[in-house]
Design brief:
Elements lengths: L1 H21 L4 E4 L1 H7 L1 H37 L5 H51 L4 E4 L13 H22 L1
Parallel strand pairs: 1-2
Helix pairs in contact: 2-5, 3-4
């Protein structure tokens, strides 16, 4: 591990030295977590997922109420009817458990896909910013032990992402 770290530091220093001598050294950093959290699309997607979760919870509550009702009927049922009621109850409980499992899985998959798409958008803006403005390095703020605010590109990336998202949304609304 130390060898790999030493190698990476050597490569970084070699690159820094080469660029420093050529007079083209430019570095910046970004707080990816902040960009992700403050990106308007993230906020809207979170709201949509929360709404879906609330709807799924309402459906689940209906199923739970139905199970409670069957349990009450089972408690009051005669010995002759109890086996049939128990069978219905067991099926309803199994259906509820399956519903819980698939709902959690579906919402998790949807969330993962959305996160992946948003991170791709963030990366594209960072790549574009780096190329267009000739940055030598753009680093994630989390790996920095010390940094000056002057090199922080976070707000610029958030602004670019939100402007593009607003344009994309307005274009979609105009088409409808």
């Amino acid at each position: 591990m130390k060898k790999i770290f030493s190698f990476l530091i050597s490569v970084l220093l070699l690159g820094l030295t080469a660029n420093a001598f050529s007079g083209e050294f430019k570095i910046g950093y970004i707080d990816i977590s902040k960009v992700f959290d403050e990106y308007q699309r993230t906020k809207e997607e979170d709201t949509l997922l929360e709404k879906k979760g609330t709807e799924k919870e309402a459906q689940r509550n209906k199923m739970v109420d139905e199970i409670k009702k069957i349990k009450e009927e089972l408690d009051l049922a005669s010995d002759k009817v109890k086996p049939e009621k128990q069978k219905i109850l067991d099926e309803k409980i199994k259906t509820l458990q399956e519903y819980d499992r698939t709902t959690r899985e579906d919402l998790r998959k949807e969330r993962d896909n959305i996160v992946r798409e948003i991170l791709k958008e963030i990366d594209a803006v960072i790549q574009e910013l780096g190329k267009n403005e000739n940055y030598t390095f753009i680093l994630n703020e989390r790996v920095l032990l010390y940094h000056q605010e002057a090199f922080d590109l976070t707000e610029r990336v958030i602004k670019i992402l939100n402007e593009r998202y607003d344009k994309k949304r307005s274009g979609t609304k105009e088409k409808k």
